[in-house]
């Protein structure tokens, strides 16, 4: 790159640049050398002083902390000897002061290390320095906390020890009338003195034990009156509370001292290391300082010599080439300023000063030309202004309905346009020269107006706003007045009052206000909801232009919330129910229409509405309607309650009958169900007796099933509720022998399941849920003639308020079990009776007990659920709603095993008050390989188990007048925790059975039981942990 | 040369001159609100380890270290190409020990996270210091409810950045109370704690559930750590006619109390129950037949294929059987932390790392479905990552040690896991 300014220094700028550049460079160089030397020297000096300061600070801090630790230790040792106050003054306060100084020193140290450039030795121990600083602060906190704790214990007036002493003294006074109590308090005092020496919690516990004994003795002490006893009890409670706090504070104090020891062990090695490192830093910095001073002195001397020679050469060169020519140019400029435009400056040589001379000559010529042009322009502009003035005067005179009145400073009219003539009935000739108030103001208001006019003219307070003036024919003239004051060409002021005619506007406003007031009042106070709808998008949608307060009451939206919004956006449900179409029809035809009662349902809202629609002249559609929801809901609830009441009465009657006989029937059936198993085990496989005995057993089992269903219908499902998965229950039923038997009876039927995986668990009686499902599937199969499909579905659904109310349940999350068949459906007249016991259209006795759907209904009731049935010629759908729970559930194995399990000599105790039952149970157990013992009551069983152990207890729940099965088990586990047991009963599960299960009984077995059921229950119980 | 070009040229040389005055520093911007740890290529990732390594609780801390060691072995002692360096400090299982150990670890600004502690009392002070410094801490052994949440609400010692893979023992005391009331038919109970937040949490949980069920707490006593004389407190238990004594203590206080209780004829029929801190081989072998018949409540042991494999690795690595099973939770804690560091770190082109402290915390809070050997780990807004499940165990064969005890399960209590709503997650306490 070429640098011409350096090779040909012909211009002033080049010469100056070269000269000043050299000067600047020299100054900068000298400054830099000086600063660098200064910087290095300072740096070395700072490093030395910082290192010395750090060394000193570390030593100070270490010394302060050590001294503070010693003082703190002295405080904890001496306060008990010299008193807390003196110990505070002598040890605690100085210790805290020293700690504060140490913390301050530690902060200073941190700043020093952060701000100064310490050497590599200290920087490499940054982590240790951080730890040292943090520990110093922690020591301060711990120190103050421990002093506070000691003060809490030992303060002479309010400390815990003082409080304890005072309370104990009061207790001694309160118990001094009783010798045994005196003895006990003396012993307690000795224990307390021992505690004051040892400070052991166990010693304080001994004091509490002794105080408890005093407490016990107080209630039986005859020598004390009741008020003294009560006072003593209060004192003991306070003593225990104070003692508890004392041991807690003592424990905290011990922790603090342990804390000190840990801190000391952590800090001491670091302090030693920091002092050593700081000393190394000082030595290294001193060496650097010495070298820097020598180098800086030599550099500075060389720079100064060079600068002096160069500076002399530059000043001589600038004086010769620049300064004298600038003085000549300054003289020329003074001449031009004084009006001598013909003067000429020197233009040579052609550098910046030559160019400056040329510029000065050009400027004086151009100023002369501009003066001539300005005079011509002024003459043209004056003519244009005259034409413009004439045009605006004509407009002012001809303006319709806008009167313009010009007045002078005396208030007399000098301008009166044509509109004024029309407004006030006077021509400009009649008006000009008169005072304005005499022309247009009524006599009684003239003085006031004259004052206002005077204020405008003299003080500038313009007359503005609406006014009523007077026509020549004495009629009122309403006008809007505006004022304008202008300066006339001669310099005087002119005042213009502009009157805008308001007569027609006022008449129209009055009429509109009257009409709006009437209709608004009607709109606001009518009890029906009224909405004004404006069609948009060619009538595809409507904008809510207005709504009255009744709409807010009915819909819950304020008029401001919905005003201006789209109808379908605010109320999306209007389209599906056909209301939108109805509104569109009214809008298109203009014919009013009646809105019959309809249910508005969208998202969670279900409301009943009724009203009218009509179109108004401005094109909007008006909707007037009422909320009839409460009326409709009342009707539905009445119907549901009546049906529920009728069904409950029937169930109550059946319950009374069934409950009375079930227990006895089950005991009676025990022989018929259980003995055939024993007989069959002993009969040969080809025996002719096997068939009739099996028939007897099957009859007994069917009778037991009827009794079980009757109990469910009569007493409900009181079994223990477990967390189950509905999908799992459905799967267990589909794999059960009962389902396989059903499919074999109906070969043309297909059964499939569609189970949702997003389902929640439910708390239920799994047996009854499966039984309900079996009954529904059986019903479905029998409703299909030849071939068809049964579908079992499960899913989760949230029921909101309206739907829940219809079903008679609480809103929430439900799991649904749905059984659908493709049968011929249920007749409408039968639908209301299908859940009644023994109501059937089938042949009685062909299948089931006649209680199938009654069991389903009762199961639903006891699970606080609901059931829905819909039927048509294409089939029937039963939907069962169960309340869901969010808890987790355990996987349940389905017990479908009918095999008989044998024992291995385990001891089983049978407890039953019925001789027949004892006989059956012991015979079965003996046959299965167990060693059975029988007892006739719970009390006898408990006595027996005092001296014996058994592997399992088979307990009857209800046993005559003695203790029942649950009470028997509760007494057994006192001596044999975890004793394995089974509960049997002729009743269904009840609260007592559930309580027994909670206590640890393994399982519950319903009477009558088959040998296989008993064998499996016994083996399961024995194998349980 | 035009004036503009000359100005640009001079500016450029000035810039070069000024640039040459400063050393070549790599400029990395940290936008994390809690700050960052910036590691150069191959620089070590520093992890602070706070465990109880002295006294009677040392075996518990030792097993945590071994769990960490197994996790490190699996990762060949490195993360994202950077070696892992541990700073191991002893807490002594005390609150003051925890605070001082935490100070040592926090003094180094390059510390990325903390693995620990063993004892909840140490965690209470250490986690406060850790959280104030913006760090993250994961424990495999702390279980006191006060450290995270009680009743799905923030507990008194909760600190942001604290996590654990050991289950919250809020329900441990409740499980014991439920078993005592319903399965043993007990109605009068005495409790003893040692003032530690862990043992206090257990006795409070027990008392709350037991009184709610209808039982009576006839004595709620305490001892101090280090107490050897248990006579007076056991006299109080006998005077109160307690049917069951619940004493969730550590060694050696638990040993002394059991020994003394067995010598007292008045406590012959009193059932004794303790907790997971004593489910340990050193306790069982020291107490022998004195501990026979005792009940224990503790977290259920993992029995998955993964845990079996880990047990085999443990045996082959250390050539001994573990004193306690909690090394599995320690292993899970270490793996969870390493996984979170890997996800939170930003890899620089030259191989360096930037680890945002806030991002590391957030990554752990967002940990869901992490497959640990103790089961799936899902960290909630309070730092609890494990699913609580507790067993009541009965010691019938002391000669079989912890293995025998863990198989003799009397009762299992699985409470519902707290579910913090997404909104609550967002508005973290």
Descriptive keywords:
heterodimer, A: 1025 residues, alpha+beta, five-stranded antiparallel β-sheet, 32 helices, 22 strands, 61% helix, extended, disordered N terminus, B: 429 residues, alpha/beta, seven-stranded mixed β-sheet, six-stranded mixed β-sheet, 14 helices, elongated, disordered C terminus
How would you describe the overall organization of this protein?
Chain A has 1025 residues and is α+β, with helices and mostly antiparallel strands. Chain A contains 32 helices and 22 strands. A 5-stranded antiparallel β-sheet of chain A has the order 2-1-5-4-3. In chain A, strands 7-6-10-9-8 form a 5-stranded antiparallel β-sheet. In chain A, helix 2 packs antiparallel against helix 9 (226-337) and helix 6 (160-174) runs antiparallel to helix 9 (226-337). Chain A starts with a helix and ends with a helix. Chain B is elongated and about 75 Å long. In chain B, strand 7 (149-150) and strand 8 (153-154) form a beta hairpin. The model of chain B is unreliable at 16-26 and 418-429 (pLDDT under 50). The longest helix of chain B is centred in the first third of the chain and has 19 residues, at 3-21. Chain B has helices spanning 3-21, 58-74, 95-106, 120-132, 170-183, 197-213, 231-239, 253-263, 281-287, 305-318, 327-344, 357-365, 401-407, 422-426; strands spanning 36-39, 45-51, 78-79, 82-90, 111-116, 137-139, 149-150, 153-154, 162-164, 188-193, 216-222, 244-246, 271-275, 295-299, 345-347, 353-356, 370-372, 375-377, 390-394, 409-413. In chain B, strands 11-10-12-13-14-19-20 form a 7-stranded mixed β-sheet, sandwiched between helices. The interface between A and B is large, with 44 and 39 residues.
């Amino acid at each position: 790159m070429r640098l011409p300014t350096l090779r040909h220094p012909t211009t002033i700028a080049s010469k100056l640049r070269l000269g000043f550049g050299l000067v600047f460079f020299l100054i900068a160089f000298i400054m830099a050398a000086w600063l660098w030397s200064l910087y290095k020297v300072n740096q070395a000096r700072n490093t030395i002083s910082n290192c010395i300061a750090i060394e000193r600070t570390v030593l100070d801090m270490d010394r302060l902390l050590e001294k503070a630790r010693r003082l703190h230790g002295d405080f904890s040792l001496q306060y008990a000897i010299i008193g807390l106050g003196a110990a505070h003054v002598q040890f605690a306060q100085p210790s805290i002061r020293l700690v504060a100084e140490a913390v301050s020193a530690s902060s200073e140290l941190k700043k020093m290390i952060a701000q100064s450039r310490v050497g590599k030795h200290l920087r490499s121990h940054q982590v240790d320095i951080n730890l040292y600083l943090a520990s110093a602060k922690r020591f301060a906190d711990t120190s103050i906390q421990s002093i506070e704790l000691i003060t809490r214990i030992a303060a002479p007036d309010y400390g815990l020890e003082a409080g304890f002493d005072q309370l104990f003294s009061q207790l001694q006074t309160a118990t001094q009338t009783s010798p045994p109590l005196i003895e006990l308090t003396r012993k307690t005092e000795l224990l307390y003195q021992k505690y004051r020496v040892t400070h052991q919690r166990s010693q304080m516990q001994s004091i509490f034990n002794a105080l408890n004994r005093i407490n016990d003795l107080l209630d039986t002490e005859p020598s004390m009156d009741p008020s003294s006893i009560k006072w003593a009890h209060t004192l003991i409670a306070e003593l225990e509370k104070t003692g508890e706090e004392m041991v807690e504070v003592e424990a905290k104090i011990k922790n603090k001292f342990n804390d000190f020891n840990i801190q000391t062990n952590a800090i001491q090695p670091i302090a030693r290391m920091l002092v050593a490192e700081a000393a190394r830093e000082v030595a290294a910095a001193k060496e650097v300082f010495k070298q820097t001073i020598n180098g800086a002195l030599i550099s500075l001397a060389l720079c100064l010599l060079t600068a002096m020679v160069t500076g002399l050469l530059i000043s001589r060169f600038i004086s010769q080439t620049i300064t004298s020519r600038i003085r000549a140019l300054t003289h020329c400029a003074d001449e031009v300023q004084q009006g001598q435009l013909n003067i000429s400056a020197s233009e040579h040589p052609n550098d910046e000063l030559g160019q400056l001379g040329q510029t000065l000559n050009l400027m004086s010529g151009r100023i002369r030309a501009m003066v001539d042009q300005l005079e011509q322009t002024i003459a043209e502009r004056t003519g244009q202004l005259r034409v413009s003035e004439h045009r605006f005067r004509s407009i002012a005179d001809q303006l319709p309905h806008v009167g313009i009145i010009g007045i002078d400073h005396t208030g007399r009219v000098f301008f009166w346009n044509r509109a004024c003539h029309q407004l006030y009935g006077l021509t400009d000739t009649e008006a000009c020269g008169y005072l304005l108030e005499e022309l247009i103001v009524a006599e009684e208001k003239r003085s006031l107006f004259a004052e206002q006019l005077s204020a405008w003219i003299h003080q500038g307070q313009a007359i503005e706003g609406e006014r009523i003036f007077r026509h020549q024919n004495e009629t009122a003239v309403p006008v809007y007045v505006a004022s304008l004051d202008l300066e006339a060409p001669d310099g005087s002021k002119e005042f213009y009052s502009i009157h805008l005619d308001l007569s027609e506007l006022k008449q129209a406003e009055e009429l509109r206000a009257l009409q709006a007031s009437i209709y608004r009042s009607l709109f606001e106070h009518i009890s029906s909801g009224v909405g004004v709808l404006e069609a948009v998008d060619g009538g595809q949608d409507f904008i809510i232009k207005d709504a009255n307060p009744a709409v807010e009451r009915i819909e819950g939206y304020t008029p401001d919330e919905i005003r201006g919004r789209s109808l379908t956006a605010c109320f999306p449900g209007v389209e599906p129910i056909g209301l939108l179409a109805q509104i569109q029809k009214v809008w298109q035809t203009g014919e009013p229409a009646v809105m019959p009662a309809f249910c508005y349902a969208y998202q969670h809202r279900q409301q009943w509405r009724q009203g009218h629609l009509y179109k108004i002249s401005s094109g909007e559609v008006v909707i007037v309607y009422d909320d009839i929801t409460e009326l409709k809901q009342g009707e539905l609830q009445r119907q549901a309650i009546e049906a529920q009441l009728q069904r409950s009465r029937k169930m109550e009657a059946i319950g009374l009958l069934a409950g009375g006989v079930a227990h006895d029937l089950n005991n009676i059936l025990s022989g018929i169900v259980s003995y055939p198993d024993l007989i069959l085990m002993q009969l040969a496989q080809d025996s002719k007796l096997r068939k009739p005995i099996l028939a007897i057993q099957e009859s007994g089992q069917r009778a037991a099933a009827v009794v079980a269903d009757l109990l469910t219908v009569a007493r409900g499902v009181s079994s223990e509720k477990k967390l189950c998965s509905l999908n799992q229950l459905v799967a267990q039923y589909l794999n059960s022998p009962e389902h396989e038997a059903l499919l074999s009876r109906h070969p043309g039927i297909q059964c499939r399941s569609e189970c949702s995986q997003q389902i929640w668990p439910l708390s239920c009686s799994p047996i009854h849920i499966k039984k309900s499902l079996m009954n529904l599937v059986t019903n479905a199969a029998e409703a299909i003639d030849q071939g068809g499909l049964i579908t079992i579905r499960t899913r989760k659904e949230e029921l909101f308020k309206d739907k829940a109310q219809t079903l008679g349940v609480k809103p929430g999350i439900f799991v649904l079990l749905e059984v659908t068949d493709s049968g011929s459906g249920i007749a409408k007249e039968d639908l209301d009776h299908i859940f009644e016991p023994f109501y059937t259209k089938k042949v009685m006795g062909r299948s089931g007990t006649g209680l199938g759907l009654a069991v389903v209904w009762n199961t639903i009731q006891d699970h606080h659920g609901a059931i829905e049935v819909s039927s048509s010629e294409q089939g029937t759908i039963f939907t069962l709603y169960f309340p869901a729970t969010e808890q987790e559930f355990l996987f349940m194995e389905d017990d479908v095993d009918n095999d008989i399990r044998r024992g291995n000599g385990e001891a089983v105790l049978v407890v039953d008050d019925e001789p027949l039952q004892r006989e059956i149970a012991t015979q079965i157990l003996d046959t299965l390989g167990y060693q059975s013992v029988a007892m006739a009551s719970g009390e006898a069983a408990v006595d027996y188990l005092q001296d014996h152990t058994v592997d399992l207890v088979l307990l009857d729940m209800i046993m005559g007048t003695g203790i029942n099965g649950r009470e028997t088990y509760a007494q057994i586990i006192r001596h044999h925790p975890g004793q394995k047991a089974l509960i049997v009963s002729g009743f269904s599960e009840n609260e007592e059975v559930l309580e027994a299960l909670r206590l640890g009984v393994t399982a519950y077995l319903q009477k009558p039981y088959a040998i296989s059921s008993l064998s499996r229950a016994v083996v399961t119980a024995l194998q349980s942990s | 040369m035009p004036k503009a070009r000359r100005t640009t040229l001079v500016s450029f040389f000035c810039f070069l001159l000024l640039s040459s005055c400063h050393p070549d520093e790599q400029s990395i911007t940290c936008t994390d609100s809690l700050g960052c740890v910036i590691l150069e290529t191959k620089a070590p990732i520093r992890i602070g380890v706070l465990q109880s390594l002295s006294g009677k609780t040392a075996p518990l801390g030792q097993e945590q270290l071994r769990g960490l060691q197994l996790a490190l072995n699996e990762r060949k002692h490195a993360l994202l190409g950077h070696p892992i360096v541990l700073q191991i400090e002893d807490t002594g299982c005390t609150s003051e020990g925890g605070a001082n150990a935490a100070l040592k670890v926090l003094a180094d600004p390059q510390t990325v996270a903390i693995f620990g502690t063993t004892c909840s009392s140490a965690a209470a002070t250490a986690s406060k210091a850790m959280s104030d410094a913006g760090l993250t801490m994961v424990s495999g052994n702390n279980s006191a409810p006060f450290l995270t949440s009680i009743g799905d609400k923030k507990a008194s010692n909760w600190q942001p950045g604290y996590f654990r893979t050991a289950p919250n023992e809020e329900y441990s005391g409740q499980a014991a109370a439920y078993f005592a009331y319903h399965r043993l038919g007990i109605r009068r109970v005495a409790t003893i704690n040692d003032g530690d937040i862990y043992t206090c949490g257990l006795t409070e949980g027990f008392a709350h559930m037991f009184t709610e069920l209808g039982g009576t707490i006839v004595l709620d006593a305490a001892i101090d750590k280090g107490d050897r004389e248990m006579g007076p407190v056991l006299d109080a238990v006998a005077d109160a006619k307690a049917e069951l004594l619940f004493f969730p203590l550590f060694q050696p206080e638990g040993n002394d109390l059991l020994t003394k209780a067995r010598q007292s004829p008045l406590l012959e029929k009193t059932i004794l129950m303790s907790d997971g801190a004593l489910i340990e081989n050193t306790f069982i072998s020291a107490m022998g037949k004195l501990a026979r018949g005792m009940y224990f409540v503790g977290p259920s042991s993992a029995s998955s294929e993964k845990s079996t494999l880990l047990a085999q690795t443990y045996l082959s690595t250390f050539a001994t059987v573990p004193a306690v099973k909690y090394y599995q939770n320690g292993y899970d804690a270490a793996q969870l932390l390493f996984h979170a560091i890997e996800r939170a770190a930003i890899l620089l082109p030259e191989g360096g790392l930037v680890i945002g402290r806030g991002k590391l915390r957030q990554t752990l809070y967002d940990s869901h479905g992490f497959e640990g050997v103790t089961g799936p780990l899902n960290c909630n807004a309070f730092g609890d990552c494990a699913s609580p499940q507790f067993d009541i165990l009965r010691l019938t064969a002391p000669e079989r040690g912890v293995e025998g005890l863990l198989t003799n399960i009397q009762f299992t209590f699985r409470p519902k896991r707290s579910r913090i709503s997404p909104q609550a997650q967002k508005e973290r306490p």
